[in-house]
Write a structure and sequence with these properties.
Elements lengths: L5 H7 L23 E7 L5 E5 L5 H7 L12 E5 L6 E5 L1 H5 L15 E4 L4 E7 L5 E5 L5 H7 L11 E7 L5 E7 H4 L16 E4 L3 E7 L5 E5 L5 H7 L12 E7 L2 E7 L1 H5 L14 E4 L5 E6 L5 E4 L6 H7 L12 E6 L5 E6 L20 E4 L3 E7 L5 E5 L5 H7 L12 E5 L11 E3 L5 E3 L6 E5 L1 H5 L15 E4 L5 E6 L5 E4 L6 H7 L12 E4 L7 E4 L2 E2 L2 E2 L15 E4 L7 H7 L3 H9 L1
Length: about 600
């Protein structure tokens, strides 16, 4: 019961409420106020008239009516007051009153007040590619997905990936929010399931229909989201085939009666050039052309011809397309001819046996119009005193030293000063003034004729002198390395006169030793050496005295070579008549060397 103490009211000028636990004193006046009658209408559970205590608020009245319904708009409750100075209509926010944001004095009721709780009128427009476009009423907790469901969901031709929410702010400005529907329907996108408000517009755009044609795995028509881009369409078509030209993809777009064709480099897009991955529009046409890259593979390959290649095809792959290099092809001198933009050719020579070494044109992609030529390797027969005689395939332009090296080099008894080269055919048709370059950079005049024979001292070539003798070989040439002639005739006053084969670098004393040594009658003071059997070209040597060898200077024990004749006389005085008579069989001795 509310109690008013008059004395205090008079002294303070206002009345106070008490809880009734105080003691009465003489002079107190007890006043019992009349209850107020309030009518509660609208979106409450039990609309009607209610008797409330004086000073009750509209919150108490709504509570007496059973609370608001779900369809109630608690932010726009109207309070109708018909008497007194405060007559009129007040708009109250129940949520603000419950949270303490609305001062209590502003929510106190008076007798005969009427409270109307309006229905929540949130009208949301759902437009575009939905099954039932229209305006829908939504309750206060409604969100985007619920409103889209009310509109029957996204239509078959709708963009299932995106939508646009348009909302008018209190400031009068319009806000547009892009909604990712794919994320929205997953747990990760729950934060984008925004609540909707009165006047909101949800627009679902139609899907973009594009055609992807040409060198893709699955050409056809595809529906993409309104935000679909070039790479999305190509991915939907399965990607570009190996024989598709990624650098010349065309996008054809029709608009306003005009046709626009744009060429796009997909490789650049994949490398990170985002501006080339353009957004697509409805009815765009994407075409991936054939890879028009052709190279000519000629010469000693199994299937010479013109071949189409991918943009990353290298030399070895081109050779494989042509069946590979034949047995007579020169793998070490494959030629690539490439023309620049001005049509000027440049020739490169590649050793395909070592193509992985270094950064050369052989390991880089081939270019359109390249010409690959595999020359024929020359066949050279190397015979005689070499480690591995036989028929060898060599690069065109190979030299004599290359042939000796590929055959394993000389044996110990080889005569490198008398190497014989026999040419069966002329390698090129040249005039006497024409020249050819060998693999070592040496230039020699082509004097090769059919059946030509030439003797070369290659020992000087190997020692770095007289390089002009390192001649270039031609196909079907024969290189013969003869055996070194080390046979020496020892005659006169020796124990066993005869023909003897001596080791390399043998001396005069060695020759006498293999013949059993001098006899007792030998005149060692007048030993003669006839070089290569020529009597007119003699050399007299003093090897000892009175049948005794003695150690002298090095020149007193000269070397002996093949075809030399060593004559040990019986007297120190040379009797040339006797010598000529003794050597009358010189022709027979020479025949022994040539047997």
């Amino acid at each position: 019961m509310d109690t008013l103490r008059t004395a205090e009211s008079e002294s303070s000028g206002h009345s106070e409420q008490y809880d009734g636990s105080f003691k009465l004193v003489p002079g107190d006046v007890i006043y019992v106020p009349r209850a107020i009658s309030v009518q509660v209408l609208g979106q409450v559970r039990n609309p009607g008239n209610y008797q409330l205590k004086a000073k009750s608020t509209f919150v108490h009245a709504i509570a007496q009516a059973g609370g608001t319904l779900d369809s109630a708009d608690t932010t726009c409750i109207s309070l109708h007051r018909g008497r007194g100075e405060e007559a009129g209509v007040l708009v109250l926010d129940l949520d603000a009153a419950l949270s303490g944001r609305l001062p209590r004095e502003e929510s106190i009721l008076k007798d005969q007040d009427t409270i109307i709780v309006p229905e929540l009128v949130r009208e949301i427009s759902v437009l575009g590619a939905v099954n039932r476009p229209g305006v829908y009423k939504a309750h206060r907790d409604a969100r985007i997905l619920q409103v889209l469901a009310m509109a029957g969901g996204i239509a078959q031709d709708g963009d299932g990936a995106s939508a646009v929410l348009t909302r008018k702010l209190r400031s009068g400005e319009t806000e547009r929010v892009q909604i990712n529907l794919e994320e929205l329907q997953s747990a990760a996108g729950e934060s984008e399931n925004y609540p909707v408000y009165n006047g909101d517009i949800i627009y679902v755009p139609q899907a973009v229909t594009v055609m992807v044609l040409g060198q893709v795995k699955a050409p056809g028509t595809y529906a993409l989201g309104s935000t679909g881009r070039l790479m999305d369409a190509i991915s939907r078509a399965g990607g570009i085939l190996p024989d598709g030209d990624q650098t010349s993809v065309t996008l054809t777009r029709n608009g306003n009666g005009l046709q626009e064709v744009r060429e796009i480099d997909i490789k650049a897009v994949m490398a990170g050039v985002r501006e080339l991955n353009i957004s697509l529009l409805d009815e765009d046409i994407i075409f991936v052309p054939d890879l028009v890259r052709e190279v000519s593979v000629l010469g000693e390959v199994v299937r010479p011809g013109v071949y189409k290649i991918r943009d990353d095809t290298i030399l070895l792959e081109c050779l494989a397309q042509a069946g590979g290099i034949t047995e007579i092809g020169d793998t070490g001198a494959v030629q690539i001819t490439r023309h620049n933009q001005d049509g000027i050719p440049t020739k490169h020579t590649i050793n395909t046996d070592h193509i992985h070494l270094g950064d050369n044109i052989g390991v880089r992609p081939m270019a359109n119009g390249d010409i690959i030529y595999v020359p024929r390797a020359i066949a050279v027969q190397v015979l005689g005193e070499v480690a591995q005689p036989g028929l060898y395939r060599m690069k065109a332009g190979s030299c004599l030293s290359d042939a000796v090296a590929i055959a394993g080099g000389f044996k110990d008894n080889a005569d490198g000063t008398q190497v014989v080269i026999t040419s069966r055919t002329s390698p090129v048709n040249m005039t006497e003034a024409d020249t050819i370059n060998d693999t070592h950079g040496n230039t020699s005049t082509n004097t090769c004729v059919i059946g030509a024979v030439r003797t070369v001292d290659i020992t000087r070539v190997l020692m770095g002198s007289n390089l002009s003798d390192n001649i270039a070989l031609a196909n079907l040439d024969t290189v013969f390395v003869p055996k070194l002639n080390r046979e020496v005739v020892v005659v006169g006053e020796v124990v066993r006169p005869g023909l003897y084969e001596l080791p390399r670098d043998s001396k005069l004393v060695d020759a006498l030793a293999v013949a059993g040594g001098p006899t007792k009658r030998a005149a060692l003071e007048a030993v003669c050496i006839f070089r290569e059997g020529r009597v007119t070209d003699s050399e007299q040597v003093v090897l000892g005295h009175d049948n005794l060898f003695f150690t002298g200077k090095a020149e007193d024990n000269p070397p002996v070579e093949g075809q030399d004749i060593v004559y040990v006389p019986s007297t120190t005085k040379l009797e040339w008549d006797r010598i000529f008579s003794f050597l009358s069989g010189l022709k027979l001795i020479k025949d022994l060397f040539l047997r």
